[in-house]
Amino acid sequence: MRVIWIGLMAALALQAQNPLARTDSFVGTFQGDGVTLQLGGSGGTYTGSLTFAGYKMPARVKASGGNATGEFDVNGQTPQTYGFTMVAEGNGFRLTSEGKEYRIVRQGEAAAPAPAAASGGSIVGTWRGAQGTARFRADSTGMMDGVEGRYSIKGDQLTLMRESAQITLGFEVRGDVLTLLGGKGAVTLNRVKEDSGPGSVHQELVGKWCWISQTNVNQGARQSSRCLTLNGNGTYANAGLTDNYGPNGGATGESSDSGTWTATETTITAHSASGKVTTYQLEKRNHPKNVRDPMIVLDGQAFVTYYNKPPW
């Protein structure tokens, strides 16, 4: 949700009249790492809101120079007020609260320049290899095999930071090949070139892909399965089954969908017969245990090949 503060609108109006007007670096909407901070005010005192995990909370900030301290209120918790700090970084801030860091960038402006990469190539982009996939964004956030985190570069050293772990690897980029160097040897990934337009039927995706989940619930059990069949003629069928078992018996639920599909190197778009169009982020990975079984990961949900297929 975007909220445009009256103070910000007034400042923008003044700037439209006077090209020499200077924007207050703390006024505006800043977003990143799941956090949205919206501030209005002037003279080092600002109020607004901080939104995290769907909760919008009142926030107050006191600035000194390029940095600031702030606090936000959480209803129904003790304590109800939490503090945070803001350190200027590029076209945004590094916000820290309770020992956790979040990189937030001013909305409506270009992202900060990408970190330099060894050997003259840019690390920003999507990379894929037999050992896994990675994505590095220009704002120093990224993903490694489906796990989000942050990264930094110093010379030919790449540091990957997740919530509870950090690892530094040697790396180099030569053209469209990224090599990561660690204690267990080298890992080579190839750059995924983004397609433009709606895509096409990619034959390597044709087949049946399934996931199965089983959990214990209230002295019973629940087993869910879903299989997605992508046909070579551009049609698909999606079928799901959920079985619930308990002390008083069981129940079964079914769902299904069909339509047509197209893909790029990083997305699959489903055109349902119901008229709904959905685009999923696509990753190709091999099963972490059965490494010869390829998977397709759609918006974070992994589907394993049902039939025998070569690994990616």
Q: How would a textbook summarize the main sheet?
A: 8 strands, antiparallel, barrel
Shape: globular
What is the number of strand segments? 24
Radius of gyration: 24 Å
Q: And the CATH topology of the largest domain?
A: Lipocalin
- The N- to C-terminal Cα distance equals 39 Å
Strand order of the largest sheet: 1-2-3-4-5-6-7-8
Low-confidence stretches: 1-22
Compute the number of helices: 1
**Which architecture of the largest domain per CATH?**
Beta Barrel
Tell me the name of the CATH class of the largest domain.
Mainly Beta
Please provide the ordered H/E string of secondary-structure elements.
Answer: HEEEEEEEEEEEEEEEEEEEEEEEE
Oligomer: single chain
Query: Approximately how much beta-strand content do the residues carry?
Result: over 45%
Average pLDDT across residues? 79
Number of domains: 3
Question: What can you tell me about this protein's structure?
Answer:
The structure is a single chain. With about 300 residues, this protein is mostly beta strands. The protein has three domains: about 100 residues, Lipocalin (Beta Barrel), CATH 2.40.128; about 80 residues, Lipocalin; about 100 residues, Lipocalin (Beta Barrel), CATH 2.40.128. Helices cover about 5% and strands about 60% of the residues. The chain has one helix and 24 strands. Strands 1-2-3-4-5-6-7-8 form an eight-stranded antiparallel barrel. Strands 9-10-11-12-13-14-15-16 form an eight-stranded antiparallel beta barrel. Strand 21 and strand 22 form a beta hairpin. The longest helix has 12 residues. The two termini are about 40 Å apart. The N terminus is likely disordered.
